[in-house]
Amino acid sequence: MADRLCVVTGTSNPALAKNIAKHLGIPVCNTEIKKFSDGETSVQIEQSVRGKHVFVVQSISDPANDTLMEILLLLDACKRASAGNIVLVIPYFGYARQSIRRYNTQTPVAAKLVADLVTTAGAHRILTLELHTDQIQGFFNVPLDHLQFSDNLTRHLRAMFPNTKDLVIVAAGKRSTSRAKAVAEKLSCSLAVVDGRKANMEPFESILLRRASSISDVTSSPVAQSVAPISSYYLLGDVRDKVCILMDDIIDSSKILTEIGQLLKDRGAKSVVVIGIHGIFSEEIITSLLAFADQVICSNSVSCEKYEKLFPQKMIVLDSSILFAEAIRRIHFDQNFEDLQ
C-alpha cells in the first residue's frame, strides 16, 4: 500500500494529516507552501505523485480563503503531476453555512461554488466529516463519503458519565436535533431541544401543547412543565438536576451558546458540557464558553492545539485521525463504509 498511497497536506491542520499518515504507516509528502509579498500563494509538492492514489488533507478553516486557495493549488499540482487518483479529504468544510439562497435575496450559494471549484481543480472524490447540512452532498458531481462522529462522541461521553441517566443531550437549535437525537439514543438518555422564535410568532408553548402526543418521546416530563421561554429561546425538555450536554455542529461565536447555557442554568441544570464537531472558536470565545460550561469538547477537524495548552483540564479535543485513516484505507482498497465508526 505504501508505494501507491500518498498523503499531501496544506497549512490548515498539518498535525491531523501527520496522524492520519501515521495510522496508515506512511509519511506525509513534503510540500512547500509560501506566499509572495502581495499575498499570492505558491505550492510545490516535493516528491513524485505520478500514478499514485493521492489524498489531499486540508480543512477550509481560518484563514478560510487562504486554506481554500491552498486546496485548489494542491489539487491542480497533483493533477498536472499525473496523479492516478486524487481524493480531497476535508475534515471541516468551510462555507457550508452558505448553502442556501434565501428568498428574494441577492446572495450566492457559496457551498455549491466551492464544490464546483474543487472538482474543477482536480478532485475525483471527496471525503468529509459532519457537513453542516446534508444537502451539500448533492452539490458535488463526484462521489462523496460523509463520515459521522457520533460514535466517537458516544464512547467518550459513556466513559465520562457511566450513569447516563444523569445526562440530557441538548440540541442547540433545529439543525443540531438529528445529531443530538442520535447520541441520546445511543446513550439511552433524555433529549432536550432549544428553539429560537421571533416575537411575533405563535407562542411555542401553545404549539407544543397542541402536539403533545407527537413529542412525547422527547422527554419523560410533562410538556406543559418542560417548555420554558427565556429571552428569545424556548426549551423543550426537563434539565433540572441533570448534566446537560449542549450539542452543536460548529462552535464559532459565543453569543447564542452563552444565552442557551444561561437558559439551562436558570432551569436548574447541575452542570453544562458544550460539544461541537468543529471547533472554530473565532474571537477567542473559549473563555466565554468556559464561564458557564464545565468542559468544551470538539474534534480535531480544525486545529485547537493552543486552546488545549491554555485550558488543559477544560478543553477536550477528540482525535478523528483513526476514523479518517480507516476511511482512506477502505477507499484505497474499494471497500464499503457500512460498519465504519
Q: Please, could you describe this protein's structure?
A:
- This protein is an alpha/beta fold.
- It contains eleven helices and 15 strands.
- Helix 1 packs across helix 11, helix 2 runs parallel beside helix 3 (110-121) and helix 4 packs across helix 5 (177-187).
- Residues 198-225 have low confidence and may be disordered.
Helical proportion, percent range: 25-40%
Q: Structural class given helices, strands, pairing?
A: alpha/beta
- Main sheet? 8 strands, mixed
Question: Taking all residues together, what is the mean pLDDT?
Answer: 86
Q: Using only CA atoms, what is the Rg?
A: 21 Å
Binned strand content: 15-25%
Number of H/I helices: 11
Distance between the termini: 22 Å
Order of helices and strands: EHEEEHEHEEHEHEHHEEEHEHEHEH
Strand order of the largest sheet: 10-11-9-8-12-13-14-15
Low-confidence stretches: 198-225
